[in-house]
Every structure is written in C-alpha cells, then in structure tokens.
Amino acid sequence: MSRHAPGWLMPVSVLAALLLGLLPLPGWLQPYRPYWLALVVVYWLIEAPDRFGLGLAFLSGLLADLCFGSVLGEQALRLTVMAFIVQRFRAQLRFFPLSQQALAIAGLLLNDRVVVAVLHLAFGEPLPRLEAWWSPLVGMLLWGPVFLLLDRLRLGNRG
Questions:
Q1: Which of 27, 57, 90, 112 could bridge across to 83 with cysteines, CB 3.0–4.6 Å?
Q2: SS3 breakdown of the chain: % helix, strand, coil, rounded to 5?
Q3: What pLDDT does residue 5 have?
Q4: Three-state SS for 35?
Q5: Are 98 and 147 in contact (CB under 8 A)?
Q6: Cβ proximity of 154 and 5 under 8 Å
Q7: pLDDT tens digits for range 105-138
Q8: What is the largest CA-CA distance in the chain?
C-alpha cells in the first residue's frame, strides 16, 4: 500500500486554504484570522517532504499574494522562511504528539508575525494592529483539526 496522498489532495488543500483566507469576516474578527495557507503548507512539509518543499511553498505564497492583493513576494517570503524552519526541524516535529506540534506551530506563526512586522517596516507600510498578534494562538488551536482532517484524507481508510 502506498502512503502517498491522492494526487488531487495537495492542490485542493492549498486552494481551500486560499479560499478560507479570502472568506469575508467582520472587521473586528479580521485580525484573528488564522493563516490557513501556512497551516496547510506546514502539514505537507511534515507529511510529504518529497512532494512539497521550499519551491512549492514559494509558489503557494506568490499565488496567495496575487489572490489577497498583498505586496508581490510578501507571502512567498513568509512561507519560504516558514518552510525552511519546518524542513530543518521536520524530524523532531513529525514525532511530537499533536499537542506539542500545536505549540511548535504557534512558534512558527508567531515568527511569521515578526516577519510581517519587519516587512511592513521595511516597505513603509502601517504595522499590523495589535490584535493581529492573537492569530498565532488561533492557528495553534486549529492545528489539531487541520492536521487530523488532512491526515484522514491523505491516508483514507488505511489510517
């Protein structure tokens, strides 16, 4: 039995993450929006490193830049930095229990918030609102369900 995901799952999960990122939210809820694309990219980097690497993380980020209307390359850089860190620590992350993985995800997403702040300072754009620093916590709380859903779809009835 092959442990590889069906060929459609990876692109569909990235597309779903992009759509979730585009989903309209009330203004007060917007800063708490989790970085769905990062959660999906991290999942694939951990579970299918031979099929999803720095290049696909970069391309996913470019696609997100185009979809979200952000500065071209901003999300590509953010996801590439995140992918590099995940690849470096993949051996440890893969064998953490889900609760410890969620804490690691919170650290990755917090690092992403720092990268966003530095990029906004460098580009002369306004800094993200203070409430945006809560989004890594939301991402941490959603890591378990996202991981379990993608794992179930990847493994099918074999898992």
A1: 57
A2: 75, 0, 25
A3: 72
A4: coil
A5: yes
A6: yes
A7: 999 999 999 999 999 999 998 898 899 999 999 9
A8: 53
